[in-house]
């Protein structure tokens, strides 16, 4: 009885303890599960905060805001990943287009049908890549490939080439044959029966051709758009043709050893001892010290300044321990062709590379290697296009002083131009020069002999390598056009003199010098008044 009474008295206390324990556990649970913000921990509503309901609503609202921000962040990351994936996919497609392994472009003669199908698939892919059906986005205005236009008689061209004519009858056989072929194909396509119309078809001829435009994308092909007269007035027919370029094919893989390939530099000279001194400084540094596989032949005309020239040559020989030189003296009027011809034939050693050079030329050791690599006996001769220097006193007239020669030798449109009309500097094996017949010795004085030799090589079976080179410079010097030159030679000399002075813009500044100075003077007065 006593036990039951004690239990009854203890029961309320036990219930109270259980209630306190449950409340404590609830509080701990709430504290543990309350979400944390970015900068602070959210707590339960306190005594002095709004009502409990409003407190929980505030907590839930902030939690919802956090979830919303997190979702926005995830969406942004997903968007960035998609953009990056798309970019990588496009890069992969470009690489596949550039190297279409999937097309398996191989000239497998054992499976001609497969090879033909693969090649056809590749050519079709070239059409898809070119701007035939639609344009492509370009980064700058310089990225656009311009068209050139043509008619039956003329081609209107931006790249004027050696002729320098903005319009011309195509003189290059490959261009002429190309355009004739395209017009004939277009006419043939127009005259094919369509199988639908029963009316008598109009028969097109080349005389119906109005005009065409074409352009070449180097890695894709050439696009042609040709316009013909239609059946009635103001009606035209347009034909679009595309000549796709085929896949790159390996033709040759060879090792070339130039360790023992000697170059004989032949320089014809009359007077000009100071220029020869400058030439020998360049020859010593680039030819003797850096290259070392070189011989120098100087063919001197007359006796004036001859001893000074021989002294310069002998001093270089002693100081550089250089014995590979020949000095030939001719008692006759200067003739560049005669000097080069005599120098070439004087050589008695094994077959050698001849570099026909002038005293106002600057070359690098890299150029000498180009000379070797682009010549091959019985196969190739080298006609480099050198960079011709403008008059330094005009180019650097606004400077305190003219820079040193080495600092002047930079390839920019303000400092010079590619001398693509000059054919005097050339490399060839002596055997090829002798077999072609050498120079025309009837040509006297300045100019003409180099073009004549160049044409001989063009008319032969030898391959003529014609390309601009970065290591060959024509140094500026005042040009004298003598009265005894023939009218044609004098004209060529004067044209060369005009082009040698400065760029079109620089010459324009000289022509309008007074007008520019007047303008600057007015501006100066105006600024003083204000």
Automatic annotation (TrEMBL):
SUPFAM superfamilies from the UniProt entry: Nucleotide-diphospho-sugar transferases
- Chief localization class? Golgi
One GO molecular-function annotation for this sequence? metal ion binding
Q: Which residues cross the membrane?
A: 7-32
Q: Name one Pfam family in it.
A: CHGN
Q: Which Gene3D superfamilies does this one have?
A: Spore Coat Polysaccharide Biosynthesis Protein SpsA, Chain A (3.90.550.10)
Q: Which domain of life is it from?
A: Eukaryota
Q: Which GO terms describe its cellular component?
A: Golgi cisterna membrane
The name this protein goes by in its record: Hexosyltransferase
């Amino acid at each position: 009885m006593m036990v039951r009474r004690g239990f009854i008295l203890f029961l309320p206390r036990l219930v109270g303890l259980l209630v306190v324990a449950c409340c404590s556990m609830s509080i701990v649970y709430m504290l543990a599960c309350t979400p944390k913000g970015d900068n602070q921990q959210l707590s339960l509503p306190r005594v002095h905060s709004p009502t409990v309901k409003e407190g929980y609503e505030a907590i839930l609202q902030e939690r919802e805001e956090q979830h919303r921000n997190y979702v926005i962040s995830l969406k942004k990351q997903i968007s960035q990943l998609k953009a990056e994936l798309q970019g990588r996919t496009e890069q992969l497609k470009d690489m596949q287009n550039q190297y279409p392994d999937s097309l398996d472009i191989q000239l497998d003669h054992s499976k001609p049908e497969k090879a033909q199908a693969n090649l056809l698939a590749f050519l079709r892919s070239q059409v898809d890549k070119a701007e035939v059906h639609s344009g492509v986005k370009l980064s700058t205005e310089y990225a656009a490939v311009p068209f050139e236009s043509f008619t039956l008689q003329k081609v209107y061209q931006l790249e004027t080439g050696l002729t320098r004519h903005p319009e011309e009858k195509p003189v290059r056989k490959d261009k002429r044959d190309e355009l004739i072929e395209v017009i004939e194909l277009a006419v043939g396509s127009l005259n094919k029966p369509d199988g639908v119309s029963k009316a008598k078809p109009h028969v097109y001829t080349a005389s119906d051709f109005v005009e065409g435009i074409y352009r070449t994308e180097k890695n894709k092909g050439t696009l042609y758009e040709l316009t013909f007269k239609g059946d009635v007035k103001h009606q035209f027919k347009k034909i679009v043709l595309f000549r796709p370029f085929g896949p790159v094919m390996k033709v040759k893989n060879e090792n070339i050893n130039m360790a023992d390939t000697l170059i004989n530099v032949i320089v014809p000279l009359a007077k000009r001892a100071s220029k020869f001194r400058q030439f020998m400084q360049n020859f010593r540094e680039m030819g003797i010290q850096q290259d070392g596989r070189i011989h120098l032949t100087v063919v001197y005309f007359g006796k004036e300044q001859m001893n000074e020239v021989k002294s310069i040559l002998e001093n270089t020989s002693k100081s550089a321990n250089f014995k590979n030189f020949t000095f030939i003296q001719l008692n006759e009027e200067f003739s560049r062709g005669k000097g080069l011809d005599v120098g070439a034939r004087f050589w008695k050693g094994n077959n050698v590379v001849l570099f026909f050079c002038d005293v106002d030329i600057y070359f690098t050791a890299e150029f000498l290697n180009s000379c070797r690599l682009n010549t091959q006996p019985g196969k190739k001769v080298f006609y480099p296009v050198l960079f011709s220097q403008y008059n330094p006193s005009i180019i650097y007239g606004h400077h305190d002083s003219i820079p040193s020669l080495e600092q002047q030798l930079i390839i920019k449109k303000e400092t010079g131009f590619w001398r693509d009309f000059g054919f005097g500097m050339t490399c060839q094996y002596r055997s090829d020069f002798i077999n072609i017949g050498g120079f025309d010795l009837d040509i006297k004085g300045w100019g003409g002999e180099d073009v004549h030799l160049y044409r001989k090589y063009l008319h032969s079976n030898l391959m003529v390598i014609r390309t601009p080179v970065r290591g060959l410079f024509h140094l500026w010097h005042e040009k004298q056009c003598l009265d005894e030159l023939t009218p044609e030679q004098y004209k060529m000399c004067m044209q060369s003199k005009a082009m040698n002075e400065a760029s079109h813009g620089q010459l324009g500044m000289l022509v309008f010098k007074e007008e520019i100075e007047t303008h600057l003077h007015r501006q100066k007065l105006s600024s003083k008044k204000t």
